[in-house]
Amino acid sequence: MPLAAVRPSQVEAWTAKLAAQGLATSTVYALHSRLSHVFSNAVHDGLVARSPVRRRTSPAAPKQRTYVATTEQVWALYEAMPAGMKPVVLLGAFAGLRVAEIAALRVVDVDFMRGVISPTIQYPAEPLKTEISKTPIPIPSELALELNRVPSEWGSETLVVGVCGRGVAPYTLETAFRAARYSIDGLPEGFRIHDLRHYFASLLIAAGLDIKTVQKRMRHSSAKTTLDVYGHMWPDKDESARAVVQSVLAARADSLRTNAARSQ
C-alpha cells in the first residue's frame, strides 16, 4: 500500500491478523514498533502528514522475561564460554551491562585501580542507549582483577575478544553464549546475555538496596521501569507495615495507662 493510504483501522486489523496467525506477542509488538519507525521517518521526510501508527493501534506489550539464573548457573556459563569471552558473563551478571555495551567496552573505559566501569559507547561505536546509560558502575577489586585477565593476556583494546584476539560483534557473543547455554542444566531455551542483568538486579535487591539505588545501578531511565521489571523481587513488606502501626497503637495505649495511673 502507498504510505499515505494506510489508516489506523488498517494497522489495527493488521496486528490482529498477525496475532491470529499464531505469532508471539513479542513478535507482533516488535513488528508494530518497526512500522511506527517507518512512519515516523515518513512524517519527518514530509511523505505523509501524520502517522497512522498510534498508541491505540498498538498491541499489548509483551511481559518482560525475568528468569533469574542461579549463582551456580552463572559460574557454569562463565566456565563454558571461550577464554576471550568469559568477561561477557562477569560484565552481565556483576555489572549489568547490555550486550552491545559489553562488545564495545574498552580497557580505557575501566579504572582497574579505583574499581569503576564507565560505559562510553555501544557496538560498533554508537552512542549509548540513554544518557543514564553513561552512569559509572562501581565494582569490587576482585572483579576488576578478573576483567583485566583478557586484555593482559591478549594485549587487546577491548575486554572481550574472539579467537584472533580482536573485538567481536554482539551477534558473535550471543552465538557463543547460546552454545554455552545448551550445556547448562535448567536454563530456559531463550536465555540471553541480556538476562544476566536480572541476576545482577536480584543480587542488589537481596542485599536490601532501595528502588532508587537499584534504578541507578541498572541504569534505567526511571524508577517505574525498575519496578515494572523487578518489583516482584522485593520482599513482602506487609509484616513490617503491620509492625509500624502496632508500635504507634502500643505507644498510645502505654500513654493512656500512664495518665490513668497518675490521675488515681
Descriptive report:
There is one protein chain. By secondary structure, the protein is mostly helical. It contains twelve helices and three strands, in the order αααααβββααααααα. The protein has helices at 8-20, 25-44, 71-80, 87-95, 99-104, 141-147, 149-154, 170-181, 196-206, 211-218, 223-230, 238-263, and strands at residues 110-111, 116-117, 137-138. A three-stranded antiparallel β-sheet has the order 1-2-3, with no helix packed on it. A hairpin with a 4-residue loop joins strand 1 (110-111) and strand 2. Helix 9 (196-206) packs antiparallel against helix 10 (211-218). The longest helix is centred in the C-terminal third of the chain and has 26 residues, at 238-263. The termini are far apart. The mean pLDDT is 90.
